[in-house]
Amino acid sequence: MIHLDAALKWINLRQDPKVDAGIPNAAFYATANKAARQYVKPAVARDPLVYPADEVPGRMTRLKPMPHEIRRLRNRLWARLKTGRGRHRTVPAAACAAGTPASKAQPAAVEAARASYLVARARSAANAASTNRITSSSDDVHTASTASA
Question: What are the structural domain ranges in the chain?
Answer without folding.
Answer: 4-51, 63-135
